[in-house]
Design a protein that fits this description.
Distance between the termini: 23 Å
Number of strands: 10
Order of helices and strands: HEEHHHEEEEHHHHHEEEEH
Strand order of the largest sheet: 1-2
Helix content: 25-40%
Structural class: alpha+beta
Oligomer: single chain
Radius of gyration: 19 Å
Length: about 250
C-alpha cells in the first residue's frame, strides 16, 4: 500500500484482502494512519478509508449490468453488442467511450471496459432490475463489519435517464472499498454475498474461547452458473487484450 501510494503520489488509499468463501478479512489497511498502540495522531488520521470513505467506483461497477443481464438470461458472454464509435447519443443521453469499439461481445465489454456497452446491457436489464441487483450486491447498505463509523455509501434512483447511464459505468453512485471487495467476493465464491468478518474468535486470558464467529451468508445474489461466466469474463480484463494487464497475478487465470 505504501509503495503504491508513493508511486502514484496519492494522499490516501486502502488495501483489503478477503477470503471470498468465508467473508474473512485477512488483512485491511488504510493510509494515512496513526499509531494504534499510543493513538498518537488519531484526531488527524483516524479516518478508516476502507470502511468510511465513499467514492465513485468507475469501471469496477460494470459488474452490475453484466452480471444482472447474464443472470436473467438476456445475454450470454458471446452476445454481440454494437458499441458505436466512441460516442453514443440518444435523446438527452450522451455516453462517451475510450475508443471506437464497434461490435463487442458481452465478455469483451468487460475486457475493454466499454461504457457504451455496459450502458446498452443495463438498458436491456431495465432500471428496476438493475437497482435490484445493485442492492443485492450490497451497495447502498452497511456491510455490518465490526468497526465503528462505517458508511453505507450513496445510491439514488433518480429516474433520470442520464443518471442511469452514468450509473451503468460507475458514476452517479458512491461506494466504500469494502463494499466493492464484498461484491467481487460474491462473484468469486459462486454468487453469495458474505458478511465481512474481522474476528475469528474471542478468547479469555486462559485460552478459553468465549465466542466463535462463523461465516455468515447474507443472500444469494446471482446463480452459480452466472458467477462462473462472470469469473471467466473478468479474467479477460487482466489478459493481454484487456485493460488491466498489469493487474494479472502469475499462477491465476
Amino acid at each position: 500500500l505504501d509503495a503504491g501510494l508513493a508511486k502514484y503520489m496519492a494522499v490516501k488509499g486502502t488495501i483489503i484482502l478477503m477470503d471470498p468463501n468465508t467473508g474473512a478479512i485477512l488483512a485491511m489497511a488504510s493510509r494515512p494512519t496513526y499509531n494504534l498502540n499510543t493513538r498518537e495522531n488519531i484526531a488527524e488520521n483516524g479516518f478508516d478509508f476502507a470502511t468510511q470513505a465513499i467514492y465513485e467506483p468507475g469501471s469496477t461497477f460494470k459488474i452490475i449490468s453484466i452480471a444482472g443481464a447474464l443472470d436473467q438470461g438476456l445475454v450470454q458472454p458471446g452476445t454481440q453488442v454494437f458499441c458505436h464509435h466512441a460516442r453514443y447519443h440518444v435523446g438527452s443521453v450522451k455516453v462517451p467511450d475510450h475508443h471506437p469499439y464497434g461490435m463487442l461481445s458481452v465478455e469483451q465489454i468487460l475486457a475493454k471496459s466499454s461504457n457504451i456497452g455496459s450502458y446498452k446491457v443495463a438498458l436491456q436489464l431495465g432500471r428496476k432490475k438493475y437497482f435490484n441487483y445493485l442492492r443485492a450486491f450490497g451497495f447502498g447498505a452497511k456491510t455490518n463489519v465490526l468497526m465503528a463509523g462505517e458508511s453505507a455509501g450513496v445510491v439514488n434512483d433518480t429516474g433520470n435517464p442520464t443518471d442511469f447511464s452514468r450509473l451503468s459505468y460507475g458514476y452517479a453512485v458512491s461506494v466504500t472499498p469494502l463494499q466493492v471487495a464484498c461484491a467481487y467476493s460474491a462473484i468469486a465464491n459462486g454468487g453469495t454475498l458474505m458478511e465481512p468478518q474481522l474476528l475469528k474468535s474471542v478468547m479469555a486470558n486462559n485460552g478459553a474461547i468465549i465466542q466463535n464467529f462463523k461465516p455468515k451468508p447474507v443472500r444469494r445474489v446471482i446463480k452459480e452458473s452466472t458467477a462462473l461466466k462472470m469469473r471467466r469474463a473478468l479474467a479477460t480484463v487482466v489478459d493481454i487484450k484487456g485493460t488491466a494487464r498489469r493487474a494479472k497475478v502469475p499462477g491465476y487465470l
